[in-house]
Design goal:
Radius of gyration: 24 Å
Distance between the termini: 34 Å
Number of domains: 3
Bound molecules: uridine-5'-diphosphate
Strand content: 15-25%
Structural class: alpha/beta
Number of helices: 22
Length: 580
């Protein structure tokens, strides 16, 4: 009985003013006139009770109140939050709960426009879509039925872009796309230059799909083959190093294209018998098969530090409940189309990750750019992966393995039970970190204090909560200090902040790109899917600096890399924290 269970879920969430603003804008229930008719507490009740109802599919007589309570407690304490679509849509008519989708784009007009339609349906419900355009015949290739010529992948991408633009206003949040083209597609140079004109493809992130073969050719400074996907014929050859350098230069100029390492992603494909992975979701953290979707959730690790110690046992409990929660989401989800429902339910991928990493490090007195932080990143992520796998196996013993388990990588790894083909993903947590009051994903702090514009040109100083807390405890708290930091953006030159804390409250720009990559790689080692991370460069950085970091990402085992050079781009597809 909904009302009775609801009564028992009565702990109040402790939310910041920003969190409440974000929730009121898009997450809380509204009546037909647009008035908010739900409190944040009621939102967590709605989500907990809705997701707990999946229990009834496996035991129709069970009492779901205990499960609802455990889900509620994790969310209301801000220890764990599911991705935005789950918070927005669970228990409402829409009931679309996933953030990530990948759709196929096949080489016929009918199929291309079918995908455009599916994209529209997904964006309407708050999901993001990724596509590989590599199967489309190149520009100027013959179209048999009309005797005309094809306009090529890049021009078809504009159709998807316009569709996204059109639905923007009516949807739950701004739709985002990832476009991928293999480096051996004949139109690769058009793709690399596609966003040079900043008014084009504004709803797309682009990534070039690199192969081992190509990387070898770069290393040996030789030519490689560009192949027409329609007939597998070699259409032309290009010098690999020159193509690589162009990619680097364009990324240096404006952030796009990023790169992904396709062979590496497929080496980790948990269900190779089902098909090849060609694309990721918009922010790159979730490689998926065509027609597959995935729901994400993140543990706020800064909540697991007590007096300089990590509370491993509590963390283990949260991992267990979060895994259970995300598995339930798969059953409670209302999928936009049948093919996606089928594919998703056969692999049952979930993406459990973390946010609040920079806060956790600060609470432990560990600078982000230190060997100690890298070591802890590995230990922490290994712990979450292992405990997540244990939890998934336990669920499988009761509910069964994911249907594609036989033929997957798991029997070979010695697993007898596994409920989910993947368990871990590190998401950007652009909005849920605002709700949770933590630093986002595994990123360092962007600023320790900054000015936020409010009405009538008033400026308010906003301070990183962990810095505020520590400065109070250590006796260097003052509003003058916060004003000073907001002006400068960093604490580096302050005469008030003790040296020790200058090292600990280091910001993204003060951390060298190499440390960014090493941190990404430390988390990647124990993450089934991928890690969302931006590598920040100073405005003065050169294309050579970017090239070195691309090579390092390859060497360090990353699955892809996204860079951003300060001041190189004004409008981003996803401007973390401010886009929604
Ligand atoms: N996403 C989207 N539109 C947005 C923000 C996010 O489609 O405006 C999708 C995209 O696939 C992204 C994923 O949601 O990779 C996760 O993003 P994030 O962790 O920032 O989402 P949150 O749950 O914090 O809103």
């Amino acid at each position: 009985n909904y009302q009775e269970i609801k009564k028992r879920l009565n702990e109040e969430p402790q939310l910041s003013a920003n969190a409440v603003t974000v929730l009121r804008r898009r997450y809380l229930k509204k009546d037909e006139e647009g008035n908010v008719i739900e409190s944040p507490m009621e939102m967590f009740q709605r989500v907990a009770i809705n997701i707990a109802q999946a229990e009834l599919l496996y035991n129709k007589d069970c009492d779901i109140s205990k499960t609802a309570e455990s889900f509620y407690n994790e969310m209301v304490s801000l220890r764990f939050l599911p991705n935005s679509p789950t918070l927005m849509n669970a228990g409402k008519e829409l009931q679309q709960l996933s953030a990530c989708f990948v759709l196929p784009v096949n080489d016929s007009l009918e199929e291309i426009f079918e995908s455009v339609k599916h994209t529209a349906l997904i964006h309407k419900s708050g999901g993001g879509t990724g596509f590989s355009f590599s199967r489309l015949r190149p520009k100027d290739d013959v179209v048999k039925t009309t005797k005309g010529v094809s306009s090529g992948p890049v021009s078809f991408m504009s159709v998807f872009d316009s569709a996204t633009e059109t639905i923007k206003q009516g949807g739950t949040r701004r739709g985002a796309n990832m476009g991928i083209l293999r480096v051996d597609h004949p139109d690769i140079m058009d793709f690399i230059y596609a966003k040079r004109d900043k008014s084009r493809l504004t709803n797309f992130n682009l990534s070039v799909g690199l192969t081992e073969e190509f990387m070898k050719a770069v290393d040996e400074n030789r030519e490689y083959d560009l192949i027409n996907p329609k007939n597998n014929k070699v259409l032309k050859k290009l010098n690999a190093r020159e193509v690589f350098n162009e990619m680097v230069t364009l990324a240096w100029e404006g952030g796009d294209p990023g790169i992904i390492f396709l062979d590496r992603i497929n080496r980790d494909n948990p269900t190779p018998q089902v098909g090849e992975i060609e694309s990721t979701n918009p922010c790159g953290e979730q490689p998926l098969l065509p027609y597959e979707s995935c729901n994400l959730g993140s543990i706020n690790v800064s909540r697991f530090v007590d007096n300089g110690n990590i509370m491993w046992e509590e963390l283990q409990n949260t991992v267990k409940t979060a895994t259970h929660f995300l598995d339930n989401v798969i059953d409670m989800n209302k999928y936009p189309i049948k093919q996606i429902e089928d594919m998703t339910k056969r692999n049952r991928k979930i993406g459990l990750g973390i946010m609040g990493w920079a806060d956790m490090l600060a609470k432990l007195d560990i600078p982000y750019n230190s060997e100690e932080a890298l070591k802890l990143a590995e230990d922490l992520m290994k712990f979450i992966r292992d405990k997540g796998r244990e939890a998934s196996s336990e669920i499988a013993k009761i509910r069964g393995n994911f249907p594609n388990f036989e033929g997957s990588i798991y029997p070979g790894l010695g697993f007898e039970y596994m409920r989910n083909a993947t368990i871990t993903t590190i998401a950007p947590t652009g909005t849920i970190s605002i709700i949770g009051g933590s630093s986002s994903g595994v990123e360092p702090y962007f600023a320790i204090a900054f000015y936020r514009n409010v009405m009538d040109n008033d400026k308010l100083v906003e301070v990183c909560p962990t810095f505020r807390e520590i400065s109070k405890k250590e006796g260097f708290f003052s509003s003058e200090l916060f004003e000073y930091i907001a002006e400068k953006g960093t604490v580096k030159e302050s005469t008030v902040v003790p040296e020790k804390y200058k090292k600990i409250f280091v910001t993204a720009h003060e951390i060298s790109p190499k440390w960014h990559v090493r941190m990404q790689s430390a988390f990647q080692k124990f993450t089934d899917n991928a890690v969302s991370k931006t590598v920040n460069f100073a405005n003065e950085a050169t294309p050579d600096d970017v090239r070195e970091v691309y090579e390092l990402a390859y060497k360090e085992g990353c699955k892809g890399i996204t860079i951003y050079r300060d001041g190189s781009r004004t409008g981003q597809v996803l401007n973390v924290g401010t886009s929604k």
